[in-house]
Automatic annotation (TrEMBL):
GO terms for biological process, alphabetical: intracellular protein transmembrane transport; protein transport by the Tat complex
Any GO CC annotation of this UniProt entry: TAT protein transport complex
Superkingdom of the source species: Eukaryota
Keywords: Membrane, Mitochondrion, Transmembrane, Transmembrane helix
Keyword check for Protease: no
Topology in membrane: Multi-pass membrane protein
Listed name of the protein: SecY-independent transporter protein
The keyword Transmembrane appears for this protein: yes
Species: Ecklonia arborea
Gene Ontology MF term list: proton motive force dependent protein transmembrane transporter activity
Predominant cellular place of this UniProt entry's protein: membrane
Family under the similarity heading: Belongs to the TatC family.
Length: 254
């Protein structure tokens, strides 16, 4: 096969992979839209029995927004898997192994994120803010949450959690292939960068930026502590390692 035929073959393979990803996304969107009310019931906070809607088209577009959120999150896993299958034949063995491990780690991370962590965060935030919203008995005000506003906040939280894994991976790679003393010296710049990333992916308020920026800073400090302990551990191994005699150091006695 000449170079032109090989290029055509890879373009066809890329088109097939993109078609699989698009069809999977459409299938997920149709499925989530079919069971949209069940999905709303799943993400409904504990103790809340209804939402308020004030617009004629608000419910329809809210359902579209909900289906888009769910289908996009699950289609991201499909797209990453198809991309790995497309790149796998052209990778070396160690590159394919690293990519495969990174893909499996990402899938496990997002599965644990949306099955365990995401519901816990929703529960904590809802209990935190609903407590202050319902304490209006002295002036007789009633808290009636809107469905669209609730899903908008869920979408912002979902965007922050989705981008957390790439940020952690990039930070880990930078700390591996750079000098650790530089990260310790410019720690203040790292803090500013973390809050800048938080300001980019969250609403413009201090609480949201703190909720995203603080875990990034915590992970940054844990990485520095881990690498310092690892370097100390390697030094201890070198100290305790017995010195092997050179093969020419022995002298035979006559």
């Amino acid at each position: 096969m000449n170079r032109f035929q090989i290029s055509i073959y890879y373009l066809q393979e890329l088109n097939y992979r993109l078609a699989y990803a698009i069809l999977g996304t459409l299938f997920l969107f149709i499925t989530t839209y079919t069971y949209k009310q069940s999905l709303i019931f799943i993400i409904l906070p504990k103790g809340l029995s209804h939402f308020v809607s004030t617009g004629i088209t608000e419910i329809f577009f809210t359902y579209i927004q909900l289906s888009t959120i769910f289908s996009f999150n699950f289609s991201l896993c499909i797209t990453l898997t198809q991309l790995y299958l497309f790149l796998r034949p052209g990778l070396y063995t160690f590159e394919a192994k690293i990519t495969f491990n990174l893909l499996i780690t990402a899938l496990i991370f997002y599965i644990c994120l949306y099955i365990v962590i995401f519901p816990i965060i929703i529960k904590i935030l809802w209990e935190l803010f609903s407590t202050y919203s319902q304490n209006f008995t002295a002036i007789d005000l009633t808290f009636e949450p809107k469905l669209q506003n609730y899903l908008s906040h869920l979408q912002q939280l979902n965007k922050a959690l989705t981008l957390s894994f790439p940020c952690l991976v990039i930070l880990n790679i930078l700390q591996i292939y750079t000098n650790k003393q530089t990260w310790v010296k410019y720690r203040g710049i790292a803090y500013i960068t973390a809050f800048s990333i938080a300001a980019f992916i969250t609403p413009p308020d201090v609480l949201s930026q703190t909720l995203i920026g603080f875990p990034l800073i915590l992970f940054y400090e844990l990485q520095l502590k881990f690498w310092s302990l690892y370097e100390e551990y390697k030094k201890q191994l070198l100290i305790r390692q017995p010195i092997k005699p050179h093969k020419y150091s022995y002298r035979y006695k006559k």
